[in-house]
Amino acid sequence: MSAGMIRTATDGPLRVVTVDRPDKMNALDSDGLDALSAAFEQATEPVVYLHGAGEAFCAGADLTVVSELDREEAVAFAAHGQRVTRTIEGYDGVVVAGIDGAARGGGVELALACDIRIGTPAATLAESGVSLGLFGAWGGTARLPRIVGETVAMDLSLSGRVLSAQEAREVGLLSRVVEDPRAVATEIADNDAAVLRVIKARLRDSAPAEQQEQRASQAFGDLIADSDLDAVDGRDS
């Protein structure tokens, strides 16, 4: 499927979603946000791989559009981006962001909504809004401190400094730095789809600890009931 600046393709258990506007560093306007949301709403694969075409992951909001907004339109545009990042975060399967090149502002916020962020050595990330008199309003102020801690989130958001791939890995913004992030997504997609969904749900559970444990026990029992462990012989120890 192709919808303007968003392309999708299926590769077995993997859905590949490409932000395809390389001449604008894959910056998104309202139509792009709608198309990105639709790509996730229509996906059914256990793993979605989100990446950008060309030499950037995503530069965030299209500033030529943002500069023309009045106050009420700006509020609506921010809410629009928040709905899209919630759609990504709430996807039933696993979402892997493959970051090759620049991720800036809203692009970082898209990545934060993913379950796993994998960078190449060329990846650079920055919450650059502060240098423009703005900030990340697509959910980044909630997700960034949860992922990297409040101290690092304050530093990145208030300074707007650019992190190299290695620096982003060190603060927990990236989980790996590899030459081919899509290979990581493919590796994950080789696992059982039901197990992937269960693990994601359990790791994302914010209920009190005892309730989490009860849910984990029930989910474990469901998996055992549906599994064929007798077929797993000679596995690596």
From TrEMBL:
Which molecular function term from Gene Ontology is one that the record holds?
Answer: catalytic activity
CDD domains recorded: crotonase-like
The family database entries (InterPro entries) matched by this protein are listed as: ClpP/crotonase-like_dom_sf, Enoyl-CoA_hyd/isom_CS, Enoyl-CoA_hydra/iso
Gene3D superfamilies to which the protein is assigned, alphabetical: 2-enoyl-CoA Hydratase, Chain A, domain 1
The entry's family comment says: Belongs to the enoyl-CoA hydratase/isomerase family.
* Entry protein name: Enoyl-CoA hydratase/carnithine racemase
Q: Which domain of life does this protein belong to?
A: Archaea
Entry-linked PROSITE patterns: ENOYL_COA_HYDRATASE
